[in-house]
Design goal:
single chain, 5-stranded antiparallel beta sheet, two-stranded parallel ribbon, 6 helices, 9 strands, 24% strand
Length: 203
């Protein structure tokens, strides 16, 4: 609240951080920094999680996975993506955008969509864990490599993928239909990978 900064006893040496928008008339109050999300306030004080801190949180939260290492895949854009390894297998950690800045429930949509598709044996990463508070999703890593040219076999596999979506849709009650319409959009935006002529996608 702006009134806190107006108190006579409020130290001029204290950094003034306001959650929300400044009004046009704030009187004699100076040097106020405004933020539109608590995450931005946190980052202004503590900075972004380092790779080591992310790994520390993971090993404490999901101890049973026996994680051994982490490396950055993509650290810019709306989401950040990391490869996380254990002695048995590897995973993809996706850190989703701040919900105060992007209110879309992307973690819930993508995680639940992959869960349904995986249950029907479609080529998507297996969902492993999710955390609503941190807005983190963990998926099974799929080995593959980027393709930099149009390949007809990938187009045909994509068509087959969408046909299977239509089959799945009939198995659910009407209240689930909207989710499956979103699946097509989600699938078309995944980065497709291929290995041994199989279509793989990595979130």
């Amino acid at each position: 609240m702006i009134e806190v900064f107006e108190e006579k006893e409020f130290s001029s040496l204290t950094k003034k951080i306001l959650f929300g928008k400044l009004e046009a008339d704030i009187g004699s109050i100076k040097n106020i920094i405004e933020f539109d999300s608590w995450r931005k306030i946190s980052l202004s004080i503590f900075s972004e999680f380092s790779l080591e801190e992310i790994f520390s949180v993971l090993t404490q939260k999901w101890k049973d996975l026996n994680l051994t290492g982490i490396k950055t895949i993509k650290a810019n854009g709306n989401s950040r993506v990391y490869r996380v390894d254990s002695n048995e297998q590897s995973y993809v950690l996706k850190i989703y955008p701040d919900l105060q800045l992007d209110p879309r429930k992307r973690l819930e949509t993508e995680y639940q969509s992959c869960l349904v598709l995986y249950q029907f044996n479609l080529a998507v990463p297996k969902p492993i864990r999710m955390d609503d508070v941190l807005n983190w999703g963990l998926y099974l890593w799929i080995e593959g490599k980027d393709t930099d040219e149009r390949q007809s076999n990938l187009i045909f596999q994509l068509i087959e993928f969408i046909q299977k979506l239509k089959e799945i849709k009939t198995k659910f009650q009407k209240r689930h239909l909207d989710m499956h319409l979103k699946l097509v959009y989600l699938v078309l935006n995944l980065n497709y990978r291929y290995k041994r002529d199989l279509l793989s996608c990595k979130i």
